[in-house]
Amino acid sequence: MLPESLLQQIAFIKEIDKLKYIQRKTRLLNSDRHENDAEHSWHLAMMAIVLAEHANEPIDILKVVKMVLIHDIVEIDAGDTFIYDTQKSHSNADEERLAANRIFGLLPEEQARELIAIWEEFEAGETSEAKFARTMDRLEPLLQNTSNNGGTWNEFGVDYSKVYAKKSIMKEGSATIWNYAEKLINESVEKGILKK
Amino acid sequence: MLPESLLQQIAFIKEIDKLKYIQRKTRLLNSDRHENDAEHSWHLAMMAIVLAEHANEPIDILKVVKMVLIHDIVEIDAGDTFIYDTQKSHSNADEERLAANRIFGLLPEEQARELIAIWEEFEAGETSEAKFARTMDRLEPLLQNTSNNGGTWNEFGVDYSKVYAKKSIMKEGSATIWNYAEKLINESVEKGILKK
Predict the structure, then answer these.
(1) Distance between CA A133 and CA A64 in Å, rounded?
(2) Mind telling me which Pfam families this protein's record contains (chains A, B) (predicted)?
């Protein structure tokens, strides 16, 4: 009686509940409580919706929102990769692809294919939507670390040049938001919460 | 140099971080850990995206996603209202309206007006988008309670007739999803995790 597609979708919806347990290195604003991937994904979606006007190029905002909502789902299997961890970021792309196939693969075939394609588009970072989504993904931890006395920069000894290198891709998504981010980074050096 | 709109949007983005601290009564699937509003909102957005095909009427999915992402933001000021708490649900509509004006009011005027209108549309529950969004909001705790041996139903002594009354509005958003929900409710009675 119930359509098979609905049962597959419910299985997917139950499975992704696990994203709420994946802890990130960063902490909530003015807080020592770690953020989890589900909260992070919600926040990026809200950011994309309110900041869309600052994108360099016209963007399909629904696609950007889908991208940021799903971008970390692979971490249910593959775990969180810290952006300044050079070892892991080179070694777990295969693991993430397997995770995408397993988890999105719970959905009806056409839907699985669509979401895997959106996730891959985000990972490749080449379209205007992916560039803007990645700008959101870089901005949130910047707001967190500047509110937390340097946050993960201090905790893991990350200096200005590393932060600048990782963050400067933000300009590909939004020159305006990058101007703001660059100002925050420079102010962090002046305040002594980011080492030069 | 930086546009005023961007600074207003950043203030809003920082403020809504507080949604991550608002605890719901329900708990994660197969878990005793309470869910917070940010995780809940993320999950509803994912549900809306994958279940859209089952809506009774054509829906603007971007609007539904915006609705569920923002629907609980007022709880930053007004607190979580438990669905089976008849006292509070009658008394805090004014408080929620004040909260909407304060929090969305941090945004540039036009954007504030748009998001307040979407929140009010959700609250009124009359459009096809609002009906579908509310179906998502009713479905998630049903999945949680059935996975948690009755969850909040047992914890707060809520019986079949109350659950049925609250959940049956799901059929306004999706007859198909309501069929599934009704089956879950009836099975819960059979299993003895929901009292008749």
Answers:
(1) 6
(2) HD_3 (PF13023)
Length of chain A: 196
Q: Which residues in B lie closer than 8 A to residue A63 (C-beta atoms)?
A: none
- Whole-number pLDDT of residue A89: 62
- Specify whether the CB–CB gap between B49 and A106 falls below 8 A: no
- Considering CB atoms only, which of A13, A61, A176 is closest to B62? A61
Which chain A positions have a beta carbon within 8 Å of B179's beta carbon?
A: 1-2
The backbone torsions φ and ψ at residue A26, rounded to the nearest 5 degrees and listed phi first, read: -75, 160
pTM score, whole prediction: 0.97
In one letter, which amino acid is B70?
I
Homologous superfamily of B4-191 in CATH? Hypothetical protein af1432 (1.10.3210.10)
- Residue of B122, B118, B99 whose CA lies nearest to B18: B99
pLDDT at B89 over 70: no
* Cross-chain Cβ contact A111/B180 below 8 Å: no
CB contact under 8 Å between A143 and B10, yes or no, is yes
Q: Nearest CB to B49: which of A6, A50, A66?
A: A66
Q: Quick check: A13 and B46 CB within 8 A? A: yes
Question: Which residues neighbour A21 within 8 Å (Cβ) at sequence distance 6 or greater?
Answer: A36, B28
**Model confidence pLDDT, tens digit, residues A4-25:** 999 999 999 999 999 999 999 9
CA B82, B85, B90, B95 dihedral sign is negative
What would the two tokens of residue B124 be? Answer: 């009124």
Instruction: For A38-62, write each residue's pLDDT tens digit.
Output: 999 999 999 999 999 999 999 999 9
pLDDT of residue A121: 98
Q: What is the pLDDT of residue B80?
A: 85
